[in-house]
Each structure stands twice: as C-alpha cells, then as structure tokens.
Predict the structure.
Amino acid sequence: MVKVPGPFKTPPSITLDPKPLADVPDAPLTPESGDARAMRSASRRSEIPVFEVMQITDEVARRRHAGHDVVSLCAGEPSARPAPGTLQPAGYTGPLGTTPLREAIAGHYRDWYGVEVDPGRVAVTTGSSGAFQLVFLTAFDPGDRVALVSPGYPAYRNILTALGVHVIEIATGPETRYQPTPQLLDEAVREHGDLAGLIVASPANPTGTMLARSELQSLVEWCSAKGARFISDEIYHGITFIDAGPDSRGVSAVELDSDAIVINSFSKYWGMTGWRLGWALLPEDMVAPFEALASNFALSPPAPAQELAMRAFSPETYAERDSVVQGFAKARALILDAEQSLNWGPAAPSDGAFYYYSELGPQLERFGDSSSYARALLEGADVAVVPGGDFDPVAGHRAVRLSYAAGEAAVAEALDRIIRFQG
Ligand SMILES: Cc1ncc(COP(=O)(O)O)c(C=O)c1O
C-alpha cells in the first residue's frame, strides 16, 4: 500500500468504540462545573474513518493550484472528460469543498460581520440541508435531546427524528416573537432533562422573526453554560426588512461564540436553490469527525456549483442581490397593506426571510382548518399557500404561510384573488 505523507491523518477519534450504538445511554452527559462545553464531544457515530481518497483529491487540487505537475492515480473518476458541447466536465473536490471557496466564505464573514473565521473550519455542503444532516450526525447520538421552536422549519425535526435524536419542541407565540428564550429552555430542561443542543433560526421560517443581538447572546450563553451545542441557521441573513443599524443583515452566532455551529446556504439571499450549495462553520473539535462523515456520505459537494459560487461575494453580486431584497420588501409591503382586507387573525412580525405567517382568524369558522382553507383556495382561486401544520403540529392547523419570494406582481395578483375568493 502506498504511504501518503502529509495531512491524510486518521482523525484522533478513529478508535472505534466496540460498544454498539444500542448501548449508548439515553441520558446525555450532565455538566457539573467548569467549561460545560468541554463535556460534550463529537457523536460516537461520527467515529468512522475518513474516506482518505477524498482528502487526497483535495491535496492534489491544492498542489496543482500551487503550480505542481501532479499525476493523480488516486480518484475513481474518469479523466477523459465529456466532449465540449455535450456534457460539462466536473470532478470531485475535497470533502469540505475547494480551498478558494472556503476562503471566500471566510471572507464573507469579515465583510458582513467583521469577524475572522478560519477557512479550515468552513465545510461546504450540498445545500444547508446537507449541512444539517452532517452536523446532526457529527454532534448528536441517538437518544440525545435537541430543542427547537415551533412553529419552525420542519426538516430540523424530521432529520433529527430520522437519526434517532429526541426532538424537544418548544411552543412559542407572539409573547417571545416566536423565538426561544433562556426561560423557555430552563422549562424544557425541567420537563424533559438536559439538552444536547438547540437550533435557532433568525430570520426564521415560517415566521420571519429575528433575534436581537442581546437575545441571541443570551441563548448562546445558556447553551455554553449547559454544555449544549448551539446551532444557528442563518440561511435568511441578508433578507431582512428591519433597521437594526449594523445588525440589519442579521447577527451571526459566530460573532458571539467561535464554538457556535453556523449553517448557511447560497439558496436564499443568492437565489441559487437548485445549485445545492451551502456551508457550515464548525467548532474546532467537530472538523475531523465532520470530514469523516462528509467524505463517506457525500464524497464532495458539487464542483460546478462551487466554481459558480466564487462569484457570490463580489460587490456587484451583493448589490444585485440587495436589489432583489428590495423587491421582496415591496411585495411584503403589499401584504401588510392588505391585512385588513384579508380579514385573518394575528400575524407574526415579518422581520425577514420572505414569509408572512398568519392565523386565519374568522376564516377558520368557515373553512375549519388551514389545510381545508388552502385546498379550497387552490381549487377556487388558483392561489397556493402553505397550511401551518408542517411548521407547527399543535397549532399550525390555524395558520397559513405566504411566501412573497414570488415578487410584487405575483403577490398583488394573489392578494386580489384571495380577497375575492373570501368574498
Ligand atoms: C430555515 C431553512 N433552513 C434551511 C433550508 C434548506 O435550504 P437549502 O438546503 O436549499 O440550503 C430552508 C429551505 O427552505 C429553510 O427555510
């Protein structure tokens, strides 16, 4: 076997624990004193060997970039590329993404948040959805408890459940602007036991609400004191409509704690949903276990998307995307102006993202629940809205979510039809 020198080391966690997963205790570790976070290590199931070939692929690319004439007999991919005009050639990249893109993402944190991020802690993924899967696998074991709010983005709950993690749903409403608070987390611990993690999103889906810097800080501190991983979904950063001065694009958790896990994506602000590209900022201790999982589960994030995404961070692109956000703002204003005519119930404050989440109020008497309302609206007026059940299994049957990402003209037409439909 060829010995490869350099960075292709098996991660320190490589000693496979002979204990089967079924023996993993249900109760998470309880931090007693000191730095509680040090008590929480990467998950046992991330203790798999890294797929070394993918690390070598990464190193080959780095060396070629640095001008070396590398002959690679390493990767399992055809070197004869498709003929021009037929298919576009693209090979694997390193399992955590290309070095230039990881550096560019770190640069984005310098530009937008004024914070230095080590590119070595940036992991490029197949959308933020890919980041969730790998982060949850790296951070949590079956039986761990992870908190999130409802209403909230349903995939957090569903991915965690599929991975055998207990989801602790914290019901929220207008009192806390649909966001968690340290008090709500204390109550959740009293009721369910210690938490291994907390997931927050600001702006959130479906409510659009945002956390102020001090609120985010109090949640980060709560997690740090309790030894729980803090996971911040920042996919809607930049799509915001409130004036919070320098915090107007959203506050990144990495500004407050370099050990926070940040997840983001090119899907929303940059409008690149179909390119399937996102990223995670990982705490130091999670990088090697994450890479082990990523190199086996995904091999590498999509190469052409990574190349294209290099253009995302230019001043021209930011300006173009900001003008798109201004278009969302106009569409949002149309909905807010139409609130009275809609004759629905109370809505969440739509600080950001492109969602308007509202109780249906008087419409419920007529239609029963939000699913029936949505179905009737689609059949009767050809307007599609999302009933709230996916976001909130308990109270979502009373609410609907409108996305104004479709733009001003589509929203104007939809509002017109909804108001006529309701009569
Ligand atoms: C809050 C939130 N997070 C993550 C995602 C996943 O996006 P992607 O996988 O395209 O990055 C979505 C998609 O709607 C979302 O609303």
The chain has two domains: 52-79+317-422, 99-313.
